[in-house]
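Look at one such:
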Amino acid sequence: MLDSLLGALELGLLYSLMALGVYITYRILDFPDLTVDGSFTTGGGIAAVMITHGYNPWLASLAAFGGGLLAGICTGLLHTKGKINALLSGIIMMIALYSINMRIMGKPNTSLLGESTVFSSVNAFITMPIAVILILLLLNMFLRTDLGLALRATGDNARMIRSFGANTDTTTVLGVSLANGLVALSGALVAQESGFADISMGIGMIVIGLASVIIGEAIFGATNVIHTTISVVLGAIVYRIVVALALRVEWLDTSDLKLITAIIVIIALVLPTARRALRQKQLAKRRTEELSSQLGSRTSRTVGGDF
């Protein structure tokens, strides 16, 4: 049981960078980007190929981040310059990345067994918390700069930010590229931790990322950007713990992982809505009772005055 929880914590930290990327597009930019499923594999593939060719694993991870940036730039340009729908732009790029990833890797699976990775000398429980905290600090510092504020404003009200002279096309491309860079970096680290990169390793990543964002916001709140980014990281960890616990149920198999993910997302989406509806119903009931009591007291005073 303890080993399962520790494994879930480790995976949660690895996938938290991907969740932060999804948060940038899904929440900040309001951009439904499906490039994630392809750029995650891109990061894993670039890192695996470079490491097997003798490159430093940290350099390979940085190159993976750069590959994700390029994938995000392509998606952003398809949307902003090509005037293609945001959802369709992501789908097109996701499909294109499948072939690109095969070109990068040269085969469907690249093994890293026996190779030196970022986790070879330092345990993931030491490396990942430091890496996640550092990236959180850098991301929050960026989001508080003028460019970062313009990026956040683009998602909130693109028309308003354009009226102030900001180029929303630039901020959109920047946000999507940064998001996919983080996703690719997460893919590179996951590949190094698991010991291989596979052409199908990115399938369903967008759903996992959304689950992490929604769970984090629902449990830990989202009062401001700093609070929300921390909540997203914690949401990725909670998601992995929930999955690990669910897989311990006797009648569930590891092949049910995607089904478990879908159920978790559904619950995470439905619960906040149901909670809001219940709160509104209770508030309406309370107001009705207050109005009824006020009306009753006025009626009694009027009747008393007549007598």
